[in-house]
Amino acid sequence: MIPLQVTAFVLVGLGAAAVVLVRDPLRQLVVNGLYGLVLTSLFVILQAPDVALSMLVVGSIAYPLIVLIAVARVRSREREGAGG
Amino acid sequence: MSPGTRRVVLVPALAVLAAVIGAGLADLPPFGHPHSPYGDLLNRVAVPERHTTNVVAATVFDYRGFDTLGEEFILFCAVTGVVALLRDQTEDTGQGEDEPQNDALPVVLMLAFGPCVVIAAWLAAFGYLTPGGGFQAGVVFAGVALLIYLGVGHRHFVVAARDRVTDPLEGLGAGGYVVVGLAALIAGMPFLHNLFGPGETGTFASGGSIGLLNWASAVEVAAANLLLFTHFLGAHVAPLVRGGGA
Predict the structure, then answer these.
(1) Could you count the other beta carbons within 10 Å of the beta carbon of residue B108?
(2) Which residue in the set B136, B229, B240 is minimally distant from A53, CB to CB?
(3) By the number of CB atoms within 10 A of the CB, which of A43, B53, B199, B222 ranks highest?
């Protein structure tokens, strides 16, 4: 394994741990986006550009949007509940 | 279940899981040498046989084209289900006052619009020559439409992504894939057999049916994602913005 690959693997490990450790859903979404970027870099470094592209579009467009909408919805419910 | 009982159940289960994972990891091929008979075979035959320089595209849309057909319809059915559930709640009245307040935001996003459309089209059009393909292109196309939402507001997004447009497009994408497969049947060959000959390696006109199937799945994925986004946004976010919450 070349140093670049080792670095990428270590970053992916750290990123995955960070995603799990962040408890606030909105912050977790941002951290998850960064983690997706690190994972995309790992796939590029391992010469799997097609997988990297899939990871990029799912991690940066599809997944954040759905989670963002879910968070917005839940928060508005909580507000409605609190405000009567 | 008391914590003590849970631990009694958990520890043996964890031990079994660890043993299975350990056995799997121990038998992995050494790093950087993921040679499998099927992968080696495809790497050897894909370029001479199909004249596509992206072996992944040749695998997904030709050698394993039938699997991709199944995946397309998984997406199709999933989106149909979601839309059926959400359509009643959606009020596409277009009366929202959710215009962005910041003047710079629409300009920046609309400047990004053109390049993003080009990237999506490139991913779809050259998916069998360079990395890319219908799936990635479709998601980027849907993401480009979201720029309208973010830049100029929900009202314009609803106009751009009407169900009247996206519904038929989704059908066209999923149905187009089947039609390409049936065309081979009509020509007296097996279902989804590669028509039109392989063309010249490395050019736009290579790969035969692969290019068509690629575009069919790009249209399907783009329309499916757009339908999802439109209905999620319409049912869940637009009412919030209109309500003026927070």
Answers:
(1) 13
(2) B136
(3) B222
Instruction: Give the pLDDT confidence score for residue B101 in this predicted structure.
Output: 65
The pTM (predicted TM-score) of the whole model is 0.80
Dist CA B228 CA B37 (whole Å): 39
How far is residue B51's CA from residue B54's CA, in Å, rounded to a whole number? Answer: 9
Q: Which positions in chain B touch A65 (Cβ < 8 Å)?
A: 146, 229, 232
Contact at 8 Å (CB) between B129 and B53?
yes
Interface touch A61/B31, C-beta < 8 Å = no
Q: What is the pLDDT of residues A3-60, one digit of tens each?
A: 999 999 999 999 999 999 999 888 999 999 999 999 999 999 998 889 999 999 888 8
Distance of alpha carbon A49 from the chain centroid:
19
Q: Where are the domains of chain B?
A: 56-243
CA distance linking residue B212 with residue B175, whole number of Å: 12
Contact B126, B140 (CB under 8 A): no
DSSP character at residue B200? S
What type of residue is B61?
A: F
Q: Which of A54, A57, A73 to mutate to test the interface with B (most CBs of B within 10 A)?
A: A57
CA distance A23 to chain B (A): 23
CA distances from B110 to A10, B104, B144 (A): 37, 10, 10
Q: What is the pLDDT of residues B191-209, one digit of tens each?
A: 888 887 777 787 777 788 8
Report CA B197 to chain centroid distance, whole Å: 27
CA distance B77 to B71: 10
CA distance B200 to B210: 13
Predicted ipTM of the assembly: 0.78
**Could you tell me which chain B residue has the CA closest to the CA of A72?**
B237
3-state secondary structure of B117: helix
The answer, yes or no, to whether residue B133 has pLDDT greater than 80, is yes
Asked if B236's CB is within 8 angstroms of A65's CB, the reply is no
Helices (H), B54-103: 55-58, 65-86
